[in-house]
# Entry
Amino acid sequence: MSHSPIIVADRGAVRTLTVNRPDKLNALDGATLRALSEAFTAACEADSVRVVVLTGAGQKAFVAGADISEMNGLSAVQGRDFSLLGQRLMRQIERMPKPVMARINGFALGGGLELAMACHLRIAADSARLGLPEITLGLIPGFGGSQRLLRLCGRAATLELCLLGSPVDANRALHLGLVNEVVAADALDARVDERADQLARAAPLAVRALLDAVHVGGECSLEAGLDYESAQFGLLFATDDMREGTRAFLERRPAHFEGR
# Structure
């Protein structure tokens, strides 16, 4: 049986996808990008899954970057195709209707950081190192890194990380807004599980509407974004989950959301 580059594991409504190439520090080659896309499609289609956690195998790396040994032999046209393959995966993750959390357990460099930035939330171990070192290879980020970093952290941080190519530690990444939270390495699993469980208990239709509203709002004018938010807000009044949530609040009990 062939070795799978992705390990899939379910814990209740939380599905964990682990990039499983620890001997390569989980570097992304074409086969791994395609396997990730298939895994995210399956998670999207599975009614039992409400949250996806993305991480890397081993103790050293989340994903240390794209696979340079594969990239070295590419032509200009093949390089562009490789970039587009990675960008399609990042867009797929970014547009997932279920929250995706990056569990950053080590190096998140190049394509690895681009993968993490496509996720909706990022929790990093205090031992993690993050960066976009493509400039040191005579390249620029190719999976959307320059654009997502610009939107996450602003022009100054983008130029610093991309032009200098030097990784930053987890606390510096937190200061820049590149990650949402930093915890001790030995507390990472517990914190990720806690956050994932919190998301799994949320109303799935409201979560989907929120992800859509934020994504659409980030790509249009304020007026258009406000209109889209109002439309999504109104549609949720037709859901059983909205009635359950408001009733539970009034009755001072936890809500039980079923995604209807």
